[in-house]
Amino acid sequence: MDMRIPNTQRGGTLIEVLVAIVILAVALFGMAGLTSSAIKYNQFSRMRATGLSLVADYAERARANIAGFADYAYTTAYNASSRTAATTDPTAAPVSCQVDTSTPTNPINTCGSAIADYDQSQWLTNVANRLPGGTAYVTTELTPAPPGVNGLPATRVLNIWLIWSAIQEDNGFAQQQLCPAAANISDPASVNCMYFRVTL
């Protein structure tokens, strides 16, 4: 009587093991790519949320100072070497405002420009502190009300570009095309920009 137990176990061949390793490697590389993309999307979303907060702050400052609206423009050319976070506000608070009421029908706020300069300095400090290497480029537009229309205020528009250099992104995430040409950015690939148009 034959007492041998038949060998029904069968191991994997070297080829099968190698194929399994290749399939696993392809899957892991795919997951790594998805993770990298998710991180970039998350970073840009965070920058976008920060940008919206900064723009809302600046718009409210400009809305509260109609007399100094034109002075909210900031058209200084971009300089990467000067982009460092500020720790203190470099501008002293403006003196007490005076309103010239010598012409009662046309009172003039004599310190609108000083308030705008102060607001702008504070805001640019916030931008530098909240966006790595951050700065801004701002233009203003003032469109008077159409003639013959009583009670309609002038239209005031802020064009705001936020510029920062923290995220080096590939073409799928790049925002360089939104940077203002007038900012004279020497190396557009090294920065990212967000553009906002705010009507007050």
TrEMBL record:
Keyword RNA-binding found: no
A Pfam family: N_methyl
InterPro entries reported for this sequence: N_methyl_site, Pilus_4_PilV
Transmembrane parts of this sequence: 12-34
UniProt keywords, alphabetically: Membrane, Transmembrane, Transmembrane helix
Source superkingdom: Bacteria
Name this protein carries in UniProt: Type IV pilus modification protein PilV
